[in-house]
Design brief:
By secondary structure, this protein is of the alpha+beta class. The chain folds into three domains: 90 residues, Ribosomal Protein S5, domain 2 (2-Layer Sandwich); 58 residues, no CATH class; 136 residues, Four Helix Bundle (Hemerythrin (Met), subunit A), CATH 1.20.120. 59% of the residues lie in helices and 15% in strands. The protein contains eight helices and six strands. The strands form two sheets. A four-stranded mixed β-sheet has the order 1-2-4-3. Strands 5-6 form a two-stranded antiparallel ribbon. Helix 4 packs antiparallel against helix 6, helix 6 packs antiparallel against helix 7 and helix 7 packs antiparallel against helix 8.
Length: 300
């Protein structure tokens, strides 16, 4: 049994890249994987998602991948169209406001003002830069860190799942004991029911009772009032619950269904029996089952 909640972190580093992978898990009815990657590595998203989907069947899983770069080479290019546009704009500005009268040293009278190179470098769009990244090298680091993080994440889910399984089975055992107590009360309940019918017949018939008729009526009512069938189905559901817990690597959905069936049988037992001891047992069984259902929300 695995829990759906968990956390894991792993990192890898070489002389150019530092990679960290963080995984967080939450409860969810279905498998929902989200991946956060730097834009230049977006092509790796499907590979990351497939690696996670191969390991888990239910839960919301968030994968955060962060990259730090060291000494990454840059390609710097001049946007000649931007230079021409800025130059034309500056010449127009100089002409409109007679800026050519105050010429920089080296500019002749009436010549256009040419801004210093330092000024041009600060103008928007003059220089364009692009980092030269090695996607394969970075992807290799990511996959190595991802595999370690997934291993840690699964180990934590298994560790938490063992504690959850232990708690759930303790409540299953409690329900089994309580249902055995109800079964032990069945003969007394039947006897009390027969006596109740006999008393009612005497009242209705002024003390004279037709035993044959009484037995026939009692048999009809006992079929309606007996909880033997519900106890038998309850025992079968509890046994199947244990088998599924032990055999399935991801029993959550099946156990949810079995919990519903167990609840139905417990409710029917409670509605059929007026016995106070049985009523208390039913309340305790429902309380144990509610604890089971609460725990199942976190089971894969």
């Amino acid at each position: 049994m695995k829990s759906m909640t968990g956390y894991a972190w792993a990192a890898r580093q070489d002389e150019q890249y530092s990679v960290s992978v963080e995984i967080r898990g939450y409860n969810n009815r279905f498998l929902d994987i989200s991946v956060s990657l730097p834009p230049f590595l977006s092509a790796l998203e499907s590979r990351v998602r497939e690696r996670a989907a191969a390991r888990f069947r239910r839960g919301k899983i968030e994968v955060f991948i962060k990259i730090r770069e060291y000494n990454t080479p840059l390609v710097i290019s001049i946007n000649r169209a931007a230079v021409a546009s800025w130059n034309a704009a500056l010449e127009t500005l100089a002409e409109d406001f007679a800026l050519t009268k105050n010429c920089a040293p080296g500019n002749g009278p009436g010549s256009a003002v040419r801004p210093p190179l330092e000024t041009l470098l600060h103008l928007d769009g003059i220089l364009e830069t692009e980092k030269v990244r090695d996607s394969e090298r970075c992807g290799s680091l990511i996959e190595s860190a991802l595999d370690e993080a997934l291993d840690s994440f699964e180990a934590e889910r298994l560790r938490e799942g063992k504690h959850t399984e232990k708690d759930i089975l303790s409540y299953i055992e409690k329900i089994e004991k309580l249902s055995a107590e109800v079964a032990a009360r069945a003969p007394e309940m039947d006897a009390a029911f027969r006596e109740h019918l006999r008393s009612r017949f005497r009242e209705l018939l002024d003390g004279e009772v037709d035993e044959a008729r009484l037995l026939a009526e009692t048999a009809v009512f006992l079929v309606k009032a007996s909880v033997a069938e519900e106890l038998s189905r309850l025992a079968a559901h509890l046994a199947e619950f244990r088998r599924e817990t032990a055999a399935s690597p991801a029993p959550g959905k099946k156990l949810d269904f079995l919990a519903q069936e167990i609840n139905r049988e417990i409710n029917t037992i409670g509605s059929k029996s007026p016995d106070l001891a049985v009523g208390r047992a039913v309340v305790d069984m429902k309380d144990a089952l509610e604890n089971i259902r609460e725990q199942l929300r976190n089971v894969e």
